[in-house]
Design brief:
The chain has helices at 5-17, 89-97, 109-115, 138-147, 151-158, 162-176, 178-192, 209-220, 225-252, 263-266, 270-284, 287-294, 299-309; strands at residues 60-61, 78-81, 102-105, 125-128, 199-202. By secondary structure, it is mainly alpha-helical. The chain is globular.
Amino acid sequence: MQYRAPLCHVTVRICNGGARVVDQHTGAGGFRGVRNASPEPDGTPLVGRSLGLRGALNARDLGGYRAADGRILRCGVVLRSDGLNHVTVEDLGPLGALGLRSVVDLRSMDEVRQAGLDRLPGGVTLHHLPLLAADFDIFLLIREALADHSPQRQRALLGDGRAAALMTGLYRWFVTDPVARERFAALLRLLAAPEGPPLLFHCSAGKDRTGWAAALLLTALGVDRGTVLADYLLTNERSAPVVRRVLDDFGTRGLMREPDLLLPVLRADDGYLGAAFAEVEAGWGGFDAYWRDGLGLDDEVLAGLRANLLDGPGAERSGPAPGGRLSPR
């Protein structure tokens, strides 16, 4: 999500005042039927592990997912998060313990100016790959809705599927816009570089830009679509306290009579991710062609991702999977 100015400030206060996340894995109920690793003694799937950051509730490890060839995405090598500009002093210790080499910030320059730079432990290289869809400006939509306290005006802007349509358009933009494709490809190249991981990537909420980046990576590694979707939707569980407090705050302050009109903007939705994958199919005929012609990536990048991120036999840089396909259908 592209947060800026007033909305960002509301969310920041809530994040910093929220309870510390103490769970280290998501419940099995949230990942029924997905193909993931279960390395814990009690059989709990070690996927979606929270990093336990007070100032970044949606920060989590992508490790534990199973690729098409049976290998497992290693824990601690690639992580996703919401913005790191409000991590606390106490958060810097756990962040430093991750041994991060790089952090990739997908926020726009305006977001960085308004919300602040990432707070990082020493020795971490920050890469800024800004993504801003001017035609699908979520903040502008919310600002217009809050500028006029008229419930009729707010419903006209956000209701009857309008907010969801904007989000769907944003996800299609992720796929079709040349600059967006270049930025997502640059992130994947960083992850594939010999000295790339451990790497953490994030935007503001860790939902939209971060969500599509994670979906691209997991799909390239051959993680099945159901698991990719489950990882994407986990944001709703992790961010639920923040979203609820934002909506309650808008209602209590009299800014909105129907704060739930904002839910399509504040929550991950399977239809949004589905729209992005549908755009891949419509424009390129499938993920393989999109990898090559849409993102401009080749087998060497794919081999680097597998070597850097996957455990098990064949993790060396061995080129594309048998048959040359990136992911099974």
